Amino acid sequence: MNKKLIYSLCAATLLVTSCDYNEDNFPGFDNNPVTDVVYYEGEYTGKYPAEGYFSLTQGDEETGKAVIETALVSLLETTYPYCDKGSSAKLTVKVATIVPGLVEPELADSYELQSADYDAMGTEKDEPGQYDNFSYKMDVNAYLTVFCKSKYPNAADGDVVKITYQYYSNYVTSTLSKLYKKSAGEWAEFINFAPSITYTLVDEDYDSMGTGDGEPGKYNNFDSKISAEKITFYLTTFAKVKFPYVEKGNTIELTYKYYTEDKKTENRTVLYQYNGTEWVAYDPEEPIIEIADRITVMKYDGTSWKLTNLISGVIRQKMESEGYTALVAWVKENKPAFMSDQKDNEEYYFGASAGYNNINNNYSTWSKYYNVDGYLTGLDNDAIQAIMDQRIAEGISGIVLPLMVTDPDPDMSYEITYNVYAGRGKGDYAMSFYYNAEEDKYEWDELTPVLK
């Protein structure tokens, strides 16, 4: 949809003897200069980067937004070279949200324990030197932090080392690694990534996958006769059944037995992430890229186009009688001086009429008859209109929207249409708002109301 709206009002002189605009015989008009205000809504038709989409990288979103803004400004300046202040545009663009993968910290050293290292930790029963490995009965971190202190006496605070070791569990010896970091003179395990869930399969788990020939429960392990795709199917199905209430984004580390072709049983570990529907393979070092259509909100400030917001969608609603009534009720209780002196269902703080279900923007009525404490004295129509816009924005965001929306979404724009009498022109106008979750309130995007 492509809309270009040029607002213009013809001058007219009328003899008005009443103070309220809602009279049967005196509708009235206000003088307004001709302006070229553009409102554009549609698909972005400019050039994308080589990937075919714009990118927003977590932690560096401003760089991505700057690239998007530059591209959109170029398109809008070419399309609308002579637009006026108050112009706005909503362009749908393809944007990839990128969550960078984990990067292993720079290592001061990487070391694999030797037989002598295990022996130095003790050779008695249930000590590492007994079989040159650790086991489930031992506190690996307790041994390795002491080892690091001895191995790296001159390490600086902040140094990170990787220690590789042998670990015996469930009759299987595996090669594992851990990172350790020196901080405040002491060594401690450095966890670069920690899965939401860690779980090691037991015999009952294999049995639940089937005990027939070629099935995991036959020997309580996987083997080379079961394809990698089939193993993934077994494990992801198992995870979904075993952990049915996980949230989207949670990760799981599963450890299982695998019987190799050289007739050795070893422990293998796999990572999965829950995407809201199923468990899928996950590598924490790989970036997560999600491509979706986003709506860019552009505003022309009289000099240049600016990107003011980036949203996922627009929810459009029309203000009904309940909204106008709520505005009048609020003014009656909080700003009684602005109530109409002719009708008890009209007010001139927001300009709402619960009788006509519209908003009065008649400049002369406001300035002549409801200029409370002289706050409009000396202001021209443009300045009065700015106050009117600010007032109705306050009313919609603070009074009407909380009545209309019960479950606000901070990633959406709420476009509210209301009916206007006089002012910049009679008709239905729309304002857009966003929900600020941190402050639990709606905020106006400060774009000029758009004639629908």
UniProtKB/TrEMBL annotation:
- Would you say which domain of life the source belongs to? Bacteria
**Protein name, please?**
DUF5017 domain-containing protein
Source species: Bacteroides cellulosilyticus
